[in-house]
Amino acid sequence: MTSADLLPAAVLQRKAVVYIRQSTQQQGQTNRESRRRQYELVDVARQRGFRDVEVIDDDLGRSASGTAARPGFERLVAWLCAGEVGAVLCFDASRLARNGRDWHHLLELCGLVDARVIDLDGIYNPCRPNDRLLLGMKGSISEFELGVLRARMLEDLVKTIETIGEIVAGRVGRPADDFGVRAFSGAVMGAALAAWLTSEDMRPEKAFQLIDDALAFLEAGLPL
Length: 224
What we know:
This protein has eleven helices and five strands; from the N terminus they run H-H-E-H-H-H-E-H-E-H-H-E-E-H-H-H. The chain is α/β, with parallel strands linked by helices. The chain has two domains: 3-143, 3-Layer(aba) Sandwich (Rossmann fold); 149-219.
């Protein structure tokens, strides 16, 4: 299939939209390479023949699981509905959506206005059954990955609480499975998580200070 078949003139006359997203503010601070590679899709769009290229990066630091508002994604949907978009470029399917509802809604809109989806693997036309099948598989894999990530995070959280419990139990002379020990260990872990979520940067001295503040708040009886 030729380039003209994949991206006909009518599609190239519309704008290409590069959608950029990272799930958390921490990812934006620590995984700058991913963000840089996503912005490079602007050059990919121009190399494909698009003259009008728009970047949507409003959703940096926002999850695509469907539980958080995504103004950037909503703007993309509005542009698609208006017939202004010739192609949507994304680093991979997980950047656009981590839930089937948003993913299939986007594909449906692209098919209605004859817009393409472009990622690192190629150009897809949602109007073509084979391309639609591949895109559907990409969306399903992305959604499945989210479930796996959540399960791993929960498992790591439980292991950390258990480790804290073993340390505390050894110091106070109680068994590690004592309810009081477990409740205390969970509260300490919660305080550490609160400090991590509040931190605006990852400098060690800042992180340690926030953890001290959180533990002091816990020791004071959680006064509000």
